[in-house]
Q: What sequence folds into this?
């Protein structure tokens, strides 16, 4: 057997084991005319005529000038890929988000990996919410930080319930290393997300910053917030959760992603001017990759112009109405049939974002049924979420309608009826 065939055989065994655990992944295509309840394009900006027209007009204008190639940037930012347009965009975004400086990356994943891998030094420590994004974990793996310590999701001050004080952020700050942290002798980076994409819950960011400032009075507590799922939806004109809460001066760095509500691609780090310069010198995901092409820069420009001019405000209001309607109808289904929690469960608490998880022990079956009815939702299974918390995730979009909400909830109800072997009650 050749070496290539031997390796393929070994890889096939790994894939077979994943299939046996029902964890196998594959690429799929969304059928045409499917109603989107899956993507992260919450504001549906790509469907807005004004956004499309502005994008095409600027692209056309650029084609008639001596602008760089429309197809590529020609190199990394440090070589030939930088442009006055990229630097102007960074200044605009820093001003809009009330930050001192901004640095573009090709994706939010690149931004997180670049930031976390190069800034913490060997004597530093990273404390992180256990449910932060995989890109933060990848950055931490490459980091030289002396310690990386998780705390229970969104648990700041501790709890009397099953998880103890030691599992909280306070428990870490006031734990065995507390004296060293509080002496100010090492930097303590605290990593959280503004909105967590699997549950749609919002970080208790005011409590996080208050806890850090209380227990690290020397100012060595540096909060980093991943705002990928909040920009565009939270804050005045979509500035994000940090701005909504007025915490710009109390958060050390923010990572933004443009692939969600903004409807384009790319990432951004909002930080100090010194940190920006440090990242340009040390962030490998910036240094060793080809810079954004002109169409990507233009797409970010027009999305932000639309948002900064207040044109997205009606979309956000409509989106919040849809979220309330969907949650109300889902709770009504649960109340009607009272299914066992392993079959179907929806949190009674009102959604804090545009994401509603519908928990079920049969996520693939439920997702497949909804897809067959023309509604695109995806099954979310371990290890993406902890075992026992499998679900489908309903992501609402500004382009969705009330009738589409009724339709997908009806599809979920029909699946539940078939599983419980009951009849639909007469209303």
A:
């Amino acid at each position: 057997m050749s070496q290539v065939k031997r390796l393929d055989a070994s890889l096939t065994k790994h894939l077979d084991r994943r299939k046996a655990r029902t964890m196998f992944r594959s690429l799929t295509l969304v059928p045409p005319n499917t109603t989107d309840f899956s993507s992260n394009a919450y504001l549906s900006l790509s469907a807005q005529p004004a956004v499309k027209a502005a994008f095409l007009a600027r692209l056309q204008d650029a084609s008639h000038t001596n602008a760089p190639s429309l197809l590529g940037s020609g190199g990394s930012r440090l070589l030939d890929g930088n442009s006055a347009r990229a630097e102007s965009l960074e200044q605009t975004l820093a001003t809009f988000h009330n930050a001192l400086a901004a640095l573009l990356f090709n994706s939010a994943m690149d931004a997180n990996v670049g930031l976390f891998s190069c800034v913490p030094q060997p004597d530093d420590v990273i404390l992180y919410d256990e449910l932060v994004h995989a890109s933060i974990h990848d950055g931490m793996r490459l980091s030289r930080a002396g310690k990386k310590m998780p705390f229970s999701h969104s648990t700041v001050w501790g709890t009397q319930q099953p998880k103890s004080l030691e599992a909280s952020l306070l428990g870490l700050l006031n734990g065995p290393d507390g004296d060293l942290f509080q002496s100010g002798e090492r930097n303590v980076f605290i990593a959280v997300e503004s909105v967590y994409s699997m549950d749609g819950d919002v970080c208790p960011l005011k409590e996080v910053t208050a806890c850090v400032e209380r227990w690290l009075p020397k100012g060595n507590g540096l909060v980093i917030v991943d705002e990928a799922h909040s920009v565009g939806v939270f804050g005045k004109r979509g500035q994000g959760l940090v701005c909504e809460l007025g915490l710009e001066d109390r958060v050390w760095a923010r990572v933004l992603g443009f692939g969600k509500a903004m409807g384009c691609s790319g990432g951004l780090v909002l930080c100090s001017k010194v940190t920006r310069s440090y990242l340009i010198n040390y962030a490998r995901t910036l240094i060793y990759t080809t810079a954004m092409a002109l169409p990507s820069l233009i797409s970010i420009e027009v999305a932000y112009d639309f948002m900064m001019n207040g044109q997205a405000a009606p979309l956000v209001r409509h989106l919040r109405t849809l979220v309330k309607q969907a949650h109300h109808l889902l709770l009504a289904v649960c109340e009607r049939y009272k299914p066992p929690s392993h079959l179907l469960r929806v949190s009674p608490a009102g959604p804090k974002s545009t994401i509603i998880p519908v928990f079920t022990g049969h996520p693939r079956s439920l997702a497949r049924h909804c897809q067959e009815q023309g509604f695109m939702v995806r099954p979310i299974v371990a290890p993406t979420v902890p075992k026992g918390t499998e679900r489908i995730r309903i992501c609402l979009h500004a382009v969705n309608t009330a009738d589409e909400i009724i339709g997908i909830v009806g599809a979920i109800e029909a699946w539940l009826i078939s599983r419980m072997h009951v009849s639909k009650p007469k209303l």
